[in-house]
Amino acid sequence: MIHDVAVRDQSRQDKRAPGGRRRRSGRRFSRRDILIVAAMLAIPVLGDIAFIWGPALVSVALSLFQWNGVGGLHARGCIPGGLFPDNGCFSGWQNYHQAATNYPPFWPAVQHNLIWLGVFVAFATPLGMFFAVLIDSGLKGSRVYQTVLFLPVMLSLALIGIIWEFFYSPNYGLINVVTGHNTNANLIDWLGNPSINLWSVLIEASWRQAGYVMVLYLAGLKAVDPSLREAARIDGASAWQTFWHVTFPSMMPMNVVVAVITVIESLRAFDLVYITNKGTNGLELLSALITSNIVGETSRPGFGSALGVVLLVISLVPISAFLYQMFARREPR
Amino acid sequence: MTRHRAWRTAAYAFMIVACLAWLVPVLFALYVSFRPNAETSQYGYVSLPHHLTFQNYVSAWTQSDMLRFFGNSVLITIPAVIVTLLLASMVAFVVTRVNIKVNLALLLLFTAGNLLPQQVIITPLYRLYLLIPLPGFLSASGYLFDSYTGLIVINVAFQTGFCVFVLSNYMRTIPGEMYEAAEVDGAGLWGRYWRLTLPLCRPALAALATLLTTWIYNDFFWAITLISTGGKRPVTSALANLQGQFVSNQNLIAAAAMIVAVPTLVVYLLLQRQFIAGLTLGSTKG
Lengths: 333, 286
What we know:
The structure holds two protein chains of two kinds. By secondary structure, chain A is an all-alpha fold. Helix content of chain A is 68%, strand content 1%.
């Protein structure tokens, strides 16, 4: 009994020690404990390295080779202008150079990814936030609005793509019939016309993204201390000022999460364009180009990896921002 | 006061219009799925119904291997969810409750891995899957590629990161005194994980299980790239093939899409709170 008390007191004191190390590091690490920790970590860590980070790093290496996926790689440099293709040779930046200068879908894909991001930042995410603020302001039937607007988040993107095809269908679709564009003379091919199909698909994507953002912000708004808003109201701030200067800044962790989701989801965008037309003809995206370089008959792992590395480098920006916000600002442990 | 009332009215109007607009695409596809193809090809989709029928659902089910695709989804989703939660909870426990130097690095490794776009890793992963042999009882193809095991493995590896992040935030809220008491009572490290931490994390685990089931069931990308045999695909990705098969009868596709949506709609109606909790746990606590 006395021993018990002593141990507890000890740990309390340690915890209080200012700036001191957290209590009892290594104090009770028996050999058995070390084995247990190793066993608990081994599978997930090895799995994460083998199937996530390993491939991410290997793609950087693969992107430097000219390779069609058959036979091995060798360190010999590629012979420039060689008559026969020297498969598996080291070509340095060649794949990147080719992507940028001699691969027509590359720049459209980059542009479409940027447009996708722009629409999410300027439209879908603010819309979701607006939904959340309205629902949180205590409208009657808020539960109903929330349930309806959240529906698309549950559905798979592949399914969303298929459902919307009925809406957009040129001859029979709802939108063309209602607007009178369903005769062959004035048909609008929403998903087929390369100058508008990206925007059509972005409406589908925003339909889902807004609901997603709404749910996150509803949770964020619930966590805001109501007395803050009350105080601002008493000080004479308008609803807009209260939101912008009080509520919004106090939702800081959630703002970062939403910002990261907005960027990452627009880099990940794939399913919708793939189900619509496999990401061609106006719907090129980096993700779709990478995929067509592995599953198509023109398999070029080296070149596909170079496109993957481009996507990797871009996505490291929001990922680092997220990690910094989540972990670096936490007190050191 | 009148200004306030005008604002309220505008807010109601906006929400009602938005909700109707949100429902239209789903309800329209649902409507198409109940109408015979003969009728819609004569009058178009936007027309009053002469007949409403379940025949499209019956045909979509019987003319495709739908049962088999659903079976594939179950075979992949259930083990993947269980293994993900088990592995993620172990990592989260070590990261929050055992003081080793690499904790932060581990947390970063897992969290960042989950944020990578899948396409960043697919090219080497595809080659890797073609290289790793599996015994016949785990994979009919003899490789990780084109096997249920392979699909389970990548879903687990990819989702573990998110779950580690959420669970470690959740475990951090468990008071340290409970662990001290357990230690005094003689509970070893494993006991503190299995008999103390896991039961306390039940709400978080339930929320994550709901979320993971939906996400893995909804997965499209891993299945179309890592499974080459059409008959082995889970139902969400099989939908893309059905689209080709039923190309002359769009009403069947509408019905097939609705059938595929049923499990997620069940989650939506019964477990929506759990699902939302899973989405928001990671970002509001900790």
